[in-house]
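Probable membrane transporter protein
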Amino acid sequence: MTPSLVLLFFGSILAFWVSTICGGGASLILIPILNSLLIPSIVPFALTLGTASNSASRIIVFKKNINWKIFYWFVPFSIPAVLFGAWLIKFLNPIYLQLSVSLLLLANLPEIFKSKTDHRLNEKPYSNFILAILGFLSGLVSGITGAIGLLFNRFYLNYGLKKEEIVATRAANELFLHLFKLAVYISLGFYSESAIYLGITIAFASIISSFSIKYILPYISDLLFKRIGYMSMVIAGIFLFSNSVNKIIDQDHISVSSSWVIREQETRISWRESDFILEYSWEEGLEIERPILPQELPDQLKLKYESIIQKYDKVLLEKVFRFRKSVSYEFYCYKGSSVTKFEFSE
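Structure:
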């Protein structure tokens, strides 16, 4: 564990440096590292313990730059959402939410190439209602994954805040979220001794990062700050997408294979204990097929199946879905080394 703590410590310092310059993202950078050290349901606790210290230290360093209007509308609506999100951990797989977050981050790709004028045209203060909605959504996502920084970075960038205001206001908003989340995770039992050690390691690294970054930030222009912010969102989205997809493939036993059946190429997708088959032809278009059991057939086709099964060694059944067409059923009838295909409408 000691080498992992050392690597996590120095990696966290670098991550929080990058996070401040990019306008967020240390949490999403650290999630893949923590996923390799902890089970997914414990990761939010370790992440929150470390990032709470980072938010507190940033408030101390940039306390004069906090936008209190955003704070007063953001925090009250985010706190109940955190409780709801933490409760949902019992029923949701955080990996699937991380996959959704990665897709939202990748959607920021066009923002990287916008000019200074385009960015200024997008800048406008949001209404109090929008601030409240954003606060609720950030609390919900944060309660489930333990991270919100980069996902809501676009909101801060489009609000028209200066880079120091973004750092300070986000830190003030997130500190209360993090403290509340820690209490919720502990009450629900979503923590472990290893998670505490890792969280404390991240906390020390975040404090060092916050007090040292103030000497770097003044040398970065607001436009460059925004470009780096959007770029970091896209990069984090790529890594988070890759990590999430790999974990989903592993835990749900997803596999893809192709084969030829009666002169037709089929692509079979296996997910958990289910198989889905994709088939494309110029005549029929795209088809989605699912293997079924005889008892899943409509009553009129059950009689057809009973008569056919007596003539063949085995009969495999598939339910076929086509765009804007009625559902049909395919019977693959095997006798010796030959196979015959029959298709019936529902």
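The beta strands are 255-261, 264-271, 274-281, 285-292, 314-322, 328-335, 338-345.
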